[in-house]
Structure formats: C-alpha cells, structure tokens
Fold this protein.
Amino acid sequence: MSQNNFYITTPIYYPSGDPHMGHAYSSILADVFARFKRNDNNNVFFLTGTDEHGLKIQTAATKNGLDPLMYCDKISLIFKDLTTKLNLSNDDFIRTTEKRHHKSVSDLWDRLVRSGDIYLSKYKGWYSVSDEAYYNSDEIIEKNGKKFSTFSGSQVEWVEEESFFFKLSSWQKKLLEFYDNNSKFILPISRRNEVVNFVKSGLNDLSVSRTSFTWGIKVPNNDKHVIYVWLDALTNYLSALNFPDTNDRLYKRFWPASLHVIGKDILRFHAVYWPAFLLAAKIKPPSRVFGHGWILSGDEKMSKSKGNILDPLEIIKKYGIDELRYYLMKEVSHGSDGNISLKSLENCINSDLANNYGNLCQRIFSFVKNNCNNKVIKTKNISAADKKLIEQTKTLTKDLRDLMNNQNLNNYIKSVINISFLTNKYINDEEPWKLKNNKEKMSNILHLSLEQIAKISILLNPIIPKATTKVLESLKINLKLTNMSFLDGKDLLSKEIVVKDLNILFKKIN
Ligand code: MSP
C-alpha cells in the first residue's frame, strides 16, 4: 500500500530553565498525532529540539556563570532527556547551534536579500526579552513604573539600534489571500480568526537583526548584526530536512511541513511571520499550524516565572508516563486552556484507565486464562447483543480519522473511551461467567470482547503507548504490520486465537 508523507514538528524549546508541564503538553500532543499517523500507514518525520540563540539565552548563561554554548550544551541535554522520559517518538532532535542549522538560516537570509525583502534602517520601539518579541506602543501598559506587553504580560524594554528590516507590510495582501486559499492553515478556527484580524489591521515591517548583543547567527557579510532569534528559530523546520539542499531526500519527501503543533502564545510567529518569510523566499509554506491552549494552574498559565509549576518528571515517577500522557490529552480540550491538578489527575486515572480500559483488559484476559486455557474460537452464531455492540463500535469509529486529522483529540478520546465503556457493559449484560455449560456462546462473547480490546488498544496506542503495546503483544498483534483498515469495519483477529497472559495495566489510586 502506498504511503503518504507526514512532517510534524513541536516548537523547539528555549533551554532557559527546567522543562515544565507546558513543554510536556506541547510535545506529547505532537507525539500523539505523529504516532497516529504512523499507525495509519503514513511515512512520518517528527521533529523536536532546542532554540538556543538570543538575548534570553545569553542572559540565562551569564546568570549561571557559563559561556552561552556551554550553558546550552548542558540544558539542551535535559530537554533531550525529556523526550525519552515523555516517550516521544521523534525522528530527530535539532539544536539551533548546529552547523546544519547555521547554513540553512544564512541561506534563507540570502534569499530574502535577493528578493528585495530586507533593508537596513533603525529600530525604535518596545522589546520583550522573555518573549523575544517586538511590540507596538498600543500593545503596552504601564504598571508601577514598568512597562508590560498587554499580549503576553511580559516586561518590555525600549530598544533603539541599527537593524535590518523584513518588509512584512508588503505581504499583508498576499498573506490574506494565502489564508483564504488555505482555509485550514490555522486551526482551531478561533485562532485563525485572531490571526486574520491581526493581519487585516495592518502589518509593520519587522526588525530582523540586533546589534546590542552577539549570541546568535551573524548576518551574512555583516558581523555587527545577529539575526533575530525568531527568524533563526523558525528555520529549524527547514534545517532538519537538510535545506538549503532542496534536492535532498528528506527535503523532497517532507517539505512543506504537514503540521506545526504550537502553543497559542507563539501563533503570530508561526502563522504570520513564518509564511511571510517563506513566501518571500519562494518556499512553499507549511500546510497547517495548530495552536493549542495553555496548561493553567488556577487561572494562570503555568510557568516558571509565576512559580506555579507541576513538575512533569515528579508526576511520571509517582504515577507513570502513560498516566500523565492520557491525563494531559484528555483534560485540555481542543485548542482551549486546561486547568490541571493532582486531584483531577487521580480521578482521571481511576475512572478512565483503571476502572474502564484497564478493567476491561484485566477481566477478559484473566477469564480467558482461567476458563479457556487462553484459547478462544469464534463461531458463526452471532447474537443480537453482539451485533448491537459491533454496530455501536462502527458508529463511534466512523469519524475518528477525521477527528485526528483536524487535531480534535479530545472528542477522539471521548469516542474511544465510550467504546471501552460499551464493551464493559456488554460483558456485564452477557455474563459469560454464567455460560460454562454453553461454551460456544461464551467463546463468542470472549472473542468479540478481545476484538474490541484490540481495536481500543490500537486507537489508544498513540496516547498510552506503553500499556497498549503490552495488550497488543498479548494478543500477538504487531502494530507495524497492522494498518488501521479496521476503521473501515474490518476485523483484526482471526477466528481462532491463542492469547498470552496479561499483567495488571493500571493501578487504582486510593
Ligand atoms: N523557542 C520558542 C519556540 C520556537 S519554535 C520555532 C518557545 N519556546 S518555549 O520553550 O517557551 O515554549 C515551547 C512551547 O511550549 C510553546 O509552544 C509554548 O506555547 C508551550 N508552552 C509553554 N508554556 C505553556 C503552558 N503553560 N501551557 C501549554 N503550553 C505552553 O516558545
């Protein structure tokens, strides 16, 4: 069967402090989409990494008494390690201090110079080091003598220096046309509207170089300037495919990117600046930018500066990685913010994982072991209850591919958990434990239950890969060989199956 290519990215992280739950959320979300696409027979390239230049990192390095590169070497490793702890399936991890990236940024810069989109002038205005972003005067408020961005709440400083500018203003019309022609370029729709309104309200030219510090990629042929960290950082998505070698196998296969998964705070960079740079450089823009909401603690964005952090590594140690992944994916709904707490994490583990999916697997596998010696055979005599469950499952699986392809993970999870709930109910109603004298009917019930478990496990695999892999191994299903054609109604199990024992999947929290 021929495969489609799917290139998905996370934002590359600032190594300016320890990773927190917001980082974990962004990465796991992208990982779930990447895993689903792989399971659904796509050829996937999934990228993550670290964003190591700019004033923010230079300042963090100085604070730690380290040279910026030594500092980045150290912290980038912590983020790389996080990819393993979060069980991410990334194919590459890029650092913006790598040579391959430097080459790619310089080339993009040269293209923008050649297209006449870059000119030298002077920047006078507000800058937030924490966001590495420029703000207009009407986006600033004053509190206790200090100035802050109304957009992000971060403190800003006044900057006046010689700078190269990108002619963003001249791309307004073309960007609006681009959004019009690509109606799903920005999802969810609410974010698309935000961006379209912002662009409609007029665009200023963008300062794309700095002279007051040195930690960055130098402007080609002008050592005084370093390239603006966002122009540098966004280009990572090209660098990982070996751009500027546009004949490279990776570039040819995977560009334009299929999906950039990002937080809503960095939407402007991805949905306005990035396509403008690319259109100017005559490179096709990505197909989609999905802006997810924030993880909140109380009503605030969870962040180090606010001191309201739930440490993902501590949660993983105490509850497990599948548990954390499932909770974050379920709790934060499609593009909106999600408020997380230990209490709701524990409730979610108990209700969905331990009592629902975990219990379904446990009860069926132990029943099959104790009563059938792990061997189950299906006959032709399908009951009305069997038919009903099969139909209900078909209805619930019908839209799953579409939901995933529109990043609507929340409704996807609801449907899959509902299939698990209905299967548990079917077993309660059919009471196979009372059918020891009707082996044929009992065996049919168990077979259908195992078929349901197989489907649910494949569907939940992108979210809880560890537990579902155990179940699929016990069912002797090789995920790499099984595509998701069962979504179109096909069965997964053969008529006669021999399963392996399955140990407990999720512990209930008391
Ligand atoms: N370095 C830039 C991205 C450059 S991409 C070319 C950056 N890094 S970051 O480390 O600050 O943030 C990385 C991602 O984590 C962003 O998508 C951001 O939205 C996300 N989150 C950071 N805090 C968050 C929450 N509290 N909740 C959810 N995600 C948030 O931005």
